Amino acid sequence: MEPLSTFQVILKILLILTPVWIGLAAIFALSITYKRRLGLFGKLFDSPIGMIGFALVMFWVLVAVMGGPLDMLVTHDALGQVSGMKNKVPGTPLAGAEEGEYAWYLLGGDNLARDVFSRVIKGSWIVVQIAPLATVFAFMVGITLGLPAAYYGGKLDTVISFLANLILAFPVILLFYLLVTPEIVETGLPSYMAMCLFVFPLIFLFLLLNSKFHTRPALRTPLLIGVLGVGLWLYFSLISDKGTPVSFMPSWLDLFDIPGGILVIFVSVVFVNSPTVFRIVRGLALDIKTRDYVAAAQTRGEGAWYIMLWEILPNTRGPLIVDFCLRIGYTTILLGTLGFFGLGMPPESPDWGSTINEGRKLLSIYLHPALPPAIALLTLVLGLNLLADGLREESLKD
Amino acid sequence: MTASDDYDGPILEIEDLSISFFTRLREIPAVMDFSCKVMPGEAMGLVGESGCGKSTVALGVMQDLGVNGRVVGGTIKFKGRDLGKMSMEELRDLRGSEIAMIYQEPMASLNPAMKIGKQLMEVPMIHQGASKEEAYARALEVVTDVKLPDPKRMLNSFPHQLSGGQQQRIVIAMALMSKPSLLILDEPTTALDVTVEAAVVDLVKELGEKYGTSMLFISHNLGLVLETCDRLCVMYSGEAVETGSIEDVFDQMQHPYTQALFRSIPLPGADKNSRPLVAIPGNFPLPHERPPGCNFGPRCDYFEEGRCNAQNIPMTSVKGFDRHRSRCLRFEEIDWDAPLAAVVTNAKSEPGEVILKMDNLKKYYEVSANALFGGSKKVVKANETLSFEAREGETLAIVGESGCGKSTFAKVLMGLETATDGGITLDGASIGDVPIEARGTDLVRSVQMVFQNPFDTLNPSMTVGNQIIRALEIFKIGKTEGERRSRMLELLDLVKLPREFAGRMPRQLSGGQKQRVGIARAFAGGARIVVADEPVSALDVSVQAAVTDLLMEIQREEKTTLLFISHDLSIVRYLSDRVMVMYLGHVVEMGDTDQVFSPPYHPYTEALLSAVPIADTSIEKEHIVLEGDIPSAMNPPSGCPFQTRCRWKDQVPGGLCDKEVPPMRRLAEGHEVKCHLSDEILARMTPVIKIAAE
Question: What CA–CA distances, in Å, run from A287 to A291, B160, B458, B614?
Answer without folding.
Answer: 8, 20, 16, 37
